[in-house]
Amino acid sequence: MEKKIAVIRGDGIGVEIVNQALRVLDKIAEKYGHTFRYVDVTAGGCAIDAFGEPLPEKELQKCLDSDSVLLGAVGGPKWDTLEGSQRPERALLGVRQALGLFANIRPSCLFKALENACPLKQEIIEGGLDLVIVRELIGGAYFGKREILQTEGGKTAYDTMIYSEMEVERIGRVAFETARKRRGKLTSVDKANVLESSRLWREVMHRLKDEYPDVEYSDMLVDNTAMQLVRNPGQFDVIVTENMFGDILSDEASMITGSIGMIPSSSLGEGSRGMYEPIHGSAPDIAGQNKANPIATILSAAMMLLYSFDAPQECRDIENAVEKALADGYRTGDIMSEGKKLVSCSEMGDIILANL
Ligand code: NAD
């Protein structure tokens, strides 16, 4: 295969971790006879410094002209005081919106070698932990009408959680399809006992479930889901939910795997193009020190191979190489524990490459 990949290194540790992921992609290309061409995109804080805005049109266009996008992280204290529309994070929303990326897929998998990094008791994680959260990404309260009003008694603010049937149906289909590729179990999370938007969400999901009789479907209220994730996370395979609930639950789910430096994610739209990124930020406290864990970004590149390029074998190959590095006792600082071998960001890259 021949693919053009837009590469947003971004800010902070973004440069270091993306460089390791590209080395891994190059090795995969060599091994399987593929060609990956990389197009550098300047976005985030570095684009504010270079061009005065987080996502210039010509940089966005490079993403639109590519088969997929790989992102490190954006942001940092240098740009923290800028007004909302000028902040580095705007670049992410800009790419998501322009590419119509409405589905965020975030796996939470506890690697056997990292079990002691999990904050839950051993008996709770005995059965393993391997779930995926499918989060709606461009609807709901984060995109609805919002306002702060001057009223008589002081200020009043509101946000509107809004969903159309079409928006629920398209994310629902991604979730059912994802469940089909995994263990065939889907939990739809809402707050249908209180919210109208959740009642519509549930109505559409129930309509869809009849089309996917091979998927074992259930509904769960969001408050109960937050509790079940720490009580018995092994019960979940795929969770589908709206934007804000997904934002919160996916951070909870990632925490129980032990480290933020381990978790990849992908954002998908109607076609095969997606944006792939680690769930963590630019980690300004360790930027430029070759200390960052590159695994989340390397696994994001693996997800790109699976979801955008339909290359499951190549994806599995990378996952196995990562698992072996951990099983052999290699750790970056964030996942270090007694008796293990501490390595730098680039050394972790070397070890994973060698395993490939
Ligand atoms: P963060 O995820 O950058 O860092 C939180 C903590 O986790 C830090 O101690 C950091 O050192 C550690 N950490 C994160 N990734 C790591 C890795 N790969 N290896 C080792 N340790 C790692 O979150 P934050 O400090 O709240 O945010 C820093 C900046 O990143 C902010 O400007 C924020 O807006 C931005 N941010 C960007 C994204 C994104 O680009 N998608 C996401 C979240 C935050």
Explain the overall architecture.
By secondary structure, this protein is of the alpha/beta class. The protein has 2 domains: 1-115 and 260-356, Isopropylmalate Dehydrogenase (3-Layer(aba) Sandwich), CATH 3.40.718; 119-256, Isopropylmalate Dehydrogenase. It is 40% helix and 22% strand. The chain has 12 helices and 14 strands. The protein has helices spanning 14-32, 45-51, 57-64, 90-98, 122-125, 165-181, 196-209, 222-231, 243-255, 295-307, 312-327, 345-355, and strands at 2-10, 35-40, 68-73, 103-109, 130-136, 146-151, 154-159, 185-190, 216-221, 238-241, 264-268, 274-278, 330-331, 341-342. The protein has a 10-stranded mixed sheet with strand order 2-1-3-12-11-4-5-10-8-9, with helices on both faces. The protein has a two-stranded antiparallel ribbon with strand order 6-7. Helix 1 links the parallel strand 1 (2-10) and strand 2 (35-40). It is globular and about 60 Å long. The protein starts with a strand and ends with a helix. Residues 13, 17, 73-76, 89, 92, 260-261, 277, 280-286, 292-293, 296, 334 line the site of nicotinamide-adenine-dinucleotide (NAD). The site of nicotinamide-adenine-dinucleotide has 22 residues, from loops.
Rg measurement, Å: 20 Å
The total count of strands amounts to 14
Q: CATH superfamily of the largest domain, called what?
A: Isopropylmalate Dehydrogenase
Order of helices and strands: EHEHHEHEHEEEHEHEHEHEEHHEEH
| Proportion in helices | 25-40%
Q: Please state the second-level CATH architecture of the largest domain.
A: 3-Layer(aba) Sandwich
Q: Give me the number of helical elements.
A: 12
CATH classification, class level of the largest domain: Alpha Beta
In terms of DSSP E residues, the strand content is: 15-25%
Mean pLDDT: 95
Spans with pLDDT under 50 lasting ≥5 residues? Answer: none
Number of domains: 2
Largest sheet: 10 strands, mixed
Q: How far do the termini sit from each other?
A: 19 Å
Bound heterogens, unique = nicotinamide-adenine-dinucleotide
Strand order of the largest sheet: 2-1-3-12-11-4-5-10-8-9
Globular, elongated, flat, extended or rod-shaped: what is the shape?
globular
Q: In CATH terms, what is the fold-level topology of the largest domain?
A: Isopropylmalate Dehydrogenase
Q: Briefly note the structural class of the backbone.
A: alpha/beta
